[in-house]
Amino acid sequence: MKFLKVTPELDYKKIIVSQNDYEGTDSNLLAGMAFEIFLIREFENMLLTLADGGCIHGPVHTSIGQEACAAGAMSVLNPTDKIASTHRAHHHYLAKLIGSYFSAGFNILKDKIPETLTEGVTQLLGEVMGLSVGCCGGRGGSMHLRNKEIGFIGSNAIVAGGVPLATGAAFASKFNKKKEVTVCFLGDGAVHQGAFHEAINLAGIWELPIIYVIENNQYAVGTSVKAAAGMDDLAQKGSAYRCVSRIVDGMDPLAVMLAVNEAKEIIEKVKKPVLIEAKCYRFPHHAGPVSGSNFGYRTKEEEEKWRKKDPYTAYPDKLAEYNLLSDEQIEQIKEKSNGIVQAAVDHCTILEGKNFIVKDGLWPDIKKVEDGLRSEGTEFNDILFREKEDFKTFEEIIYSDAIAAVTGRNMEKDNNVFVLGEEVAHFGGGPYGATKGLFQKYPDRVLNTPISEAGFTGLAGGAAMDGLYPVVEIMFADFTLVAADQLFNQIGKLRHMYGNTTHMPVVVRIRIATGCGYGGQHSMDPVGLYSLFSGWRIIAPSNAFDYVGLFNSAIRSTDPVLLLEHNKLYPQKFDIPAGNLDYFVKMGKANVIRSGSDVTVLSYSSGIKLCAEAAEELVKEGIETEIIDLRTVSPADIDYELIGQSLKKTGAILVVEQAAKSLGIGKAIAYECQMRFFDYLDSPIALVNGLDIPPPVSKPLEEECLPGITQVRNMIFRVARRQV
Ligand SMILES: Cc1ncc(C[n+]2csc(CCOP(=O)(O)OP(=O)(O)O)c2C)c(N)n1
């Protein structure tokens, strides 16, 4: 055996900046960066004062020491460029604000500060304080900021959680052929998260216009980079993902500015994403005003060493030393920045003695606390919803073909619809034929992904926030758990958290593979899991007619929609209106598919056929079963009006699901029904569910797990006869 040395071609370098670079840089830009650093420092010191005075609810993660990263990066971004940030985001927000509201060539020493900047700083302060004037109406607070107008697509409190979303924003720019970049800021701690690796890999293979800036402030809370990574230079990570990688002094705004400028050129010319590691330091501990050394994970000596590079002093000193700005000019800039912060504080607080208190009338209206969790439905204002009775002629179609057909029809109508998932562009129609023929017709809009559910669902979320309509296929429902943060913490919550300032039109399609012998990690019916996150709408069509109409509604919806497709339905034939894939079925409207007077049975998806067969068998016993196909099964969309009407007639109710009891929605429906319709009920509400175990592979054992016709028939009989 022998070893050959492998020398991959890596573009991985350290950037060094000299006096010449300073002297060759436009003095307005240099002065502008000083202004940004001063404003950020003044703002965050003020936050600490306000927090100390009890005016801020929640943690304050300052960027004290890290201001140069934001000031440098934003100095070369265009207002249309986008940025994403983390729990430590004030510096990014303020610098982007300045970048967006100062016109090109703005001279901080001579020009008047635009009103919009002062208003923007007030919006940030208001948000951190949880006030209605905040950029998200006080919903998000310090860690969940968003301001689309300035290209601040969102900060995120899940470490690395925002990275796939930012990658989705970059995807949207490329998709729309826009000449803009996205800068995704992250901490050194985020580099160890899977979401980061999945997202940067997607950026690498799809050559997305994104710059990942790792602000390596040496610690994630109290854990050093050395301890977490076993190495000093995190920029190396980029080389694994076809990125150009750079290390830069993050305490020097000019160095960061030059690095980001070069990154923009690389994106334009080489079409590769760029990873910049900006080495910097935060002086206080993770949150609050106290130095990190007080907590014992670092020394005072180390802090003192870094103090010498503090951009608040070292940068203006350098400008003075190189005769680029006088001490007087520096003071003038400082005064301007302090004035803006003071104006924002005056807007939000009054001083009583030595105490700041929140001004009257600035708290958000508590009656509106639930607003914006989901759309109010205005996107359907001009839609006439249809039911099967509205059509005269029909044609037969296989369920899986209906999925492909209606997806294709939407892609034909709207260029912003695209499909992504594992193998969706292969085998002529993806793993189940549900994307049949789409890749051949739309090769740029049907994207095979690597096996990285968190990465591509998060990317879809970011793209959806940017105006695209992604249709994500998740191969098996159980893989939801691999992408749980993106699906639930991000896609399911952000509309509300960002104060209803974003739409989230992601459609996720999932095959439910119960009964296929795939075992306990491929057989989940996830309806109950998604229903825990109320931002989601969940659809489980039992036939192709409903599928087509509900898919059209799902695509039009500005909320995330989960489409559950039971494996058993895929090969079944159903009628849909002849030559019509454009009708809409209303989400939230259930359907009586069989009338009866003895018992109401609620079900959805493949459960409907089972219930219909059982009901048919019970006719000879003299039992008249009413079956309601719920169709939409997200808790807020259950059609209780129809259920109530039925229950008034039958007096008894049974919910039939193939999902395991703990993963179903039957319990929640039973609770609601007894709260709403107690007076109509003659007997306890009954449930039929799968067993609460991971379905085994062995055929008889798996069959034992799932409710079959006998169990359903027996339970309908008992409920109808009031023998529960
Ligand atoms: C997934 C996740 N795990 C843990 C936390 C708790 N937490 C918040 S910030 C943080 C440290 C993050 O360090 P780093 O990414 O280096 O950013 P920094 O705080 O240094 O800016 C931790 C552990 C979290 N918010 N999210």
Automatic annotation (TrEMBL):
List the GO molecular function terms: oxidoreductase activity, acting on the aldehyde or oxo group of donors, disulfide as acceptor
Pfam families named in the record: E1_dh, Transket_pyr, Transketolase_C
Residues in the signal sequence: none
Asked whether the UniProt record includes Oxidoreductase among its keywords, one would answer yes
Domain Transketolase-like pyrimidine-binding residues, every copy: 397-572
Recorded superkingdom: Bacteria
Q: Any keyword Amino-acid biosynthesis?
A: no
Instruction: Identify the SMART domains for this entry.
Output: Transket_pyr
Q: Which InterPro entries is this protein grouped with?
A: DH_E1 (IPR001017), THDP-binding (IPR029061), Transketo_C/PFOR_II (IPR009014), Transketolase-like_Pyr-bd (IPR005475), Transketolase_C (IPR033248)
Keyword terms of this UniProt record: Oxidoreductase, Thiamine pyrophosphate
Task: Name what cofactor the protein needs.
Answer: thiamine diphosphate
| Gene3D superfamilies (UniProt xref) | 3.40.50.920, 3.40.50.970
The protein's role, per its UniProt record: E1 component of the 2-oxoglutarate dehydrogenase (OGDH) complex which catalyzes the decarboxylation of 2-oxoglutarate, the first step in the conversion of 2-oxoglutarate to succinyl-CoA and CO(2).
Protein name as catalogued: Transketolase-like pyrimidine-binding domain-containing protein
Q: Which species expresses this protein natively?
A: Mariniphaga sediminis
